[in-house]
């Protein structure tokens, strides 16, 4: 993979094709064998013609219900407890057990029980259709599979905006989709072997799939409001969030997926003209359906959604289903002419009408993102997600969301954090020349980096729409992409680290929260990749959330970073943490820091965040190396194989963890003065005295923030006032005091 990256054109689509080919080559053998199980067991299981459809439906339903259990147990339990390898070993063990039982049965079962007792040319209950109908069924199940997986991608994109992009949400959606397929296959077994005109039934089901998908279009924009209203009544907890996820998924998917599940047994029944070849027939139909599913998921994810959006793609998929149903009924030689017209004409009319009135470009956003009077400035759906920019009426703050996840904004809190992610490592590094920025966001970190005399900045951003949205933040990013030193790479940051052979003096990482889709950017394996890309003496900084992380997971996050970067310190920006990893023990050149902060570009860049003088900047220091060592003692490590943090929803969703995490960090606070060097002799006493004052004041300020988050506002105000008595220049504490006084 890396060799191809360095020797051939590497556009997004080239790399995507390469990933597909490599994945295909790795997964081919096991998935090839998986695909063969259903046809083989069908040959054994179906003994009589009059039970063909029912038995196929039962087998498909049982197999799919097994997939439901496998998906649910892996996503909610196994991966979090056993890890990836442990889960794979468990699944492999199940396969070996099945193989062992099958072998034992094959040794004891009479040979006559393994043979078909009756072979006829046409299964009873199916009329003798012309060959063109049989061929049509194969194409129909191909396009039906195409539409089905297209819907899955589309509905997942809609639901992820409501449910957020956690592993649990994806598990919930896939479990629901598979559950619907299994139920549909099971329900059709009740009448498939007694009804004669199955082609008409197949056509009607396809039309109903399309119509049910059309009915979902107006719900895409209204469902978030409904679900959030319900959630506000119920409150937020782990199980309520999971329950709401299943409620939303079943509400969207259940009816159409039940209908989809009925199509496979019908197609097999219609396609099988000779019971002797039932295994081959099942295999051919299954292959056609799965091939269509591959094409459908690719076409929607890579082509249709970027071109015509979520609603437009849903409309195209509905067109495929309704067209298939209309054709099936139209070519049915056993349906009355008036019946054909009575079904196909209304279906066609509804389909045509929907192309004119369906909301093909109406934004799909959550009510928590867009409040009363707020303006939607930007909305775009691309391959990586749905990106929106909102301007709040009350504050004038602009916020950027990817799906439903807040990623950046122009609030004081957010700007201070992302500015520090840019300035902090460059002020600490003695002579930075090259910088890698993981995550462009709204471009403020990159802009902060360019205020220093560096030669090269590479910034990696996964979502092209996020880059497009950055123009609405030009006031704070100053159109930084026009800087000739900046090179934008569209793609995954971790993937870039794997492929590039460049090394950087500074790497600054601003991933989203590990629970919301960036879990693999908080693992030891990822940090080791970063370390390989640092020059000698290089510095790395990483965003560290304190919210939505249990105290145990916070320890794990810091411990994991420290395992790769033993010289780790923790800094604090208003309400967010920042990890700093250095090659040796952190040494802050005070004279150099003061000189750099006096430069006009850097000083102006930091002024709005109250960081434009050395003492304000140094006051952000929270934990030194010794404090980190004591805080993370005996903490577990987060790895790709054991992604403990990513699967910690039970410990943190619906729980206020910010104040708890900060309170647990406070006993381990470090004195930044122990890391200072190169202080002029005549000012050393004054500098150390002022830093001691700041350290004492910070104790009250940080304690006040914990109290404020816990609802003890009067006590928090008292702590803030004590802070300002000790250190009146503390601008950040003044802001916290204002929040407390005004009831924010």
Name some characteristics of this structure.
elongated, four-stranded antiparallel β-sheet, alpha/beta
Care to describe what's here?
This protein has 744 residues and is α/β, with parallel strands linked by helices. 61% of the residues lie in helices and 10% in strands. The chain has helices at 2-7, 12-45, 52-108, 131-163, 167-188, 198-216, 219-234, 238-271, 278-330, 337-357, 412-428, 444-450, 464-469, 474-477, 493-499, 524-532, 551-564, 590-597, 600-607, 614-618, 625-631, 649-652, 658-665, 681-709, 713-726, 731-742, and strands spanning 375-381, 386-391, 398-402, 405-409, 434-438, 456-461, 486-490, 504-509, 534-544, 567-573, 576-582, 588-589, 621-623, 676-677. An eight-stranded mixed β-sheet has the order 7-6-5-8-9-11-10-13, with helices on both faces. The chain has a four-stranded antiparallel β-sheet with strand order 1-2-3-4. It has a two-stranded parallel ribbon with strand order 12-14. The chain is elongated, with a radius of gyration of 30 Å.
Strand order of the largest sheet: 7-6-5-8-9-11-10-13
- How much helicity do the residues have? 55-70%
Beta-strand content estimate: 5-15%
Structural class: alpha/beta
Give the end-to-end Cα distance, rounded to a whole number of Å.
51 Å
What's the shape?
elongated
Low-confidence stretches: 116-126
Oligomer: single chain
Number of strands: 14
Mean pLDDT figure: 89
What about the largest sheet? 8 strands, mixed
- How many helices in DSSP terms? 26
**Rg for CA atoms:** 30 Å
